Amino acid sequence: MTGNALVELQDLEKEFAGTKALKGVSLEFLRGEVHGLLGENGAGKSTLIKILTGVYSPSAGEILLEGKPVRISNPPEAHKLGLGAVYQDAELFSGFTVGQNILLGNEPGRIGISYRAIHREAAEILDSMGLDLDIYRLAGDLSAAEMQLVTLATLFHRRYKLIVLDEPTARLSAAESEVLFGIIEGFKKQGITIVYISHRLREVQEICDRATILRGGLVSGTLNRGEVTEDRVTELMVDRNRSQLATYNEGENVRDEVLLEVEGLSTANLAPINFQISAGEVLGITGPVGGGMEDIARALGGVTRHSGSVKLGGRPVSVNTPIAARRSGVALIPEDRRKQALFPSLSVAENVCLPVLGSLQRLLMIRPGPVKSYADGVMERLAVRPRDASIQVRFFPAATSRRW
Question: Average pLDDT of 118-137?
Answer without folding.
Answer: 89
